[in-house]
Amino acid sequence: MIRQASYTDKAALQNIWGAAFHEDTAYTEFIIDHCLNLGTVYWHPEGLACLTLFPVLLRSGDHEGYTEGRYVYGVATHPSMQKKGYSSLLLEQISDLFPFLLLFPVSDALSAFYKARGFSQTVRIPGAIISAQKSVLPEQARYHYYLRSAAVFENAFVWPVGMFSFACKECLFRGGSIGPDRLMYPHPTGWEEKPFISSPKTLNMSRNQGLIRFRQKEDARNYVPDNSFFALPLD
Question: What DSSP string describes the chain?
């Protein structure tokens, strides 16, 4: 039976996450603690499967305000229970709870999996930059500039301030650093840089694709994938 998780389920969720993603204990505890604190975690205790929903905002067209949807993060099933449909059940349970669901599949196989479950629209995401140099700039508060740079797009997906702060903390936890317009993660050949402020450089670079599922058909018709922007996806 699917239900919303609480802190009493933390140990079980850590076990699922660590086994599914092969993460060490310290990182797994860090992630699950923030998933329970900042997001909503749904899980299937018998199926040993869980997913986290984080709040994400969409400013569309000429609207001044934002529509709050959810970012689907960390869909995980324990290896002993995989390929039995539990991830699909979790997605089906939440499919109509919010105006939209956004996610970032990290492989073609996952992209096909989610498209088959209604995530039919694409979202433009700047590709990561691999650099041999680590930025020496100190961490700074960039949230205001993050919002302002995204506002030039007709469809701009942005994090609430708490989620933006979490993305920065997660980067630092992984041994990364924060530059003036990007987060930098350790990479075997240097640094993987994820821009979070749009600029001529990020606009012309390679693009990744996120996927989105709208609850209302009217919202889907009004959405323009080619003029969308979402920086700082969590993966």
Answer: --EE--GGGHHHHHHHHHHHHT--HHHHHHHHHHHHHHSEEEEETTTTEEEEEEEEEEEETT-SS-EEEEEEEEEEE-GGGTTSSHHHHHHHHHTTSSSEEEE--SSHHHHHHHHTTT--EEEEEEPPEEESS---PPP---HHHHHHHHTTSSEEEE--HHHHHHHHHHHHHTT-EE-SSEEEEEETTEEEEEE-S--HHHHHS-EEEEEEEESSHHHHHH--GGGEEE-----
